[in-house]
Amino acid sequence: MIRNPEVLCKKLGLAFNNPELFTIALTHRSAGANNNERLEFLGDSILGFVIAQKLYKLFPKAGEGVLSRLRASLVNEESLAGLARQHQLGDYLRLGLGELKSGGCRRDSILSDALEAVMGALFIDQGIAACQQWIEHIFAEKLQSLSLDNWQKDPKTQLQELMQSKKLDLPDYVLQTMSGLAHEQTFKVKCTVPLTSETCIGVGVSRKKAEQSAAEQMLELLNKDSK
Amino acid sequence: MIRNPEVLCKKLGLAFNNPELFTIALTHRSAGANNNERLEFLGDSILGFVIAQKLYKLFPKAGEGVLSRLRASLVNEESLAGLARQHQLGDYLRLGLGELKSGGCRRDSILSDALEAVMGALFIDQGIAACQQWIEHIFAEKLQSLSLDNWQKDPKTQLQELMQSKKLDLPDYVLQTMSGLAHEQTFKVKCTVPLTSETCIGVGVSRKKAEQSAAEQMLELLNKDSK
């Protein structure tokens, strides 16, 4: 039995002018041609924008690397599926028989896509301001609990603590080159860690800045590898 | 000599309430701490959203795969750098001495980032509607000339033509499994092509749809590999 989408709509605090859009957002491609894939495409980009501008405002001193990591920690399949589960979204999904039997309504990817599709549907129905408000509402708890501790620490400190937590040797920074006139020099520093054979080169107007940049790149590299 | 950013601002058809934001958007990280990285983070997400919603409206029948490929063809480093060059943006960049000497003002990545940062700055200065309007304006030509031919073709046709253009054997589709009741069967088809040893599995409510889905995934795979 497919539950009435109106019930979910109310649970989510939404009221659609065109309820059909909401129903489509809950329709997986396994259930037919008029499914949520296009709305998900749209919702995904809206979510990226809404969270980016929120983080930009919330953390005026965070660099681009920190903002990107914060966003990745908020917007990912697992986190979106978790939000979808909080509202029992899976109970209202429209799936083909195959997906239904294999438990598609509990799968992270399907839940996450449907939640993004709801965002896309809301945008089409009510525009960006309403959509932004709702996204910020359902992400409110996650946004509040973002532990700034970890993000406010500079990259070198973060990288060092990561190595310490794994009982590994500390990162190594080697100055590669210095160039430019005395008052506008450019430093190039190579960072290596025991966790990977890859190295990262940081460039900056001081040795310290070049080291921070190398550490930041290494954190991103390790972050990607662990995904 | 750094040229007056006001001149570029006018060329771009913009007028900032806070011109300082525009100057920051033109400042590469090599030129100091108050640079365009945060604005680029923001602009990148805005651009993704604006183009997504535009494509969603322009191509009401295009599937998510087509929309994603269309967006990737519009929004990429090379295309953004091209737009930046059209407006001589490189002449107005603020770079550190090292980047200046090594021709940073002509580099795709630096030009593309600065253009995204201008979008971020415009959003902060004037909000999403103004920013959307300007992005659609500078992308107008690209949006108009989007060759629909290629995108309207179904994935199987596109994949076949790709193989023919490289004088390779045609794609191979093998039915793997069929499951479900007679009126709601699920088909699983494996697609292989001579270009890669990887295979793609498509699932659909008919054999044809499963093949199209497998072909679409293969196109995406080949697209990723070629980047």
UniProtKB/TrEMBL annotation, chains A, B:
It is an enzyme of class 3 (hydrolase). It is found in: Cytoplasm. InterPro entries: dsRBD_dom, RNase_III, RNase_III_dom, RNase_III_sf. One of its GO terms (cellular component) is cytoplasm. Residues 154-224 form the DRBM domain. It comes from the Bacteria. Mg(2+) binds at E40, D113, E116. CDD domains: DSRM_RNAse_III_family, RIBOc. Residues 5-127 form the RNase III domain. The active site is at D44, E116. Its EC number is 3.1.26.3. It catalyses: Endonucleolytic cleavage to 5'-phosphomonoester. SMART domains: DSRM (SM00358), RIBOc (SM00535). Its cofactor is Mg(2+). NCBIfam families: RNaseIII. Digests double-stranded RNA. Involved in the processing of primary rRNA transcript to yield the immediate precursors to the large and small rRNAs (23S and 16S). Processes some mRNAs, and tRNAs when they are encoded in the rRNA operon. Processes pre-crRNA and tracrRNA of type II CRISPR loci if present in the organism. Belongs to the ribonuclease III family. PANTHER family: RIBONUCLEASE 3, RIBONUCLEASE III. HAMAP family: RNase_III. This is Ribonuclease 3. The gene is rnc.
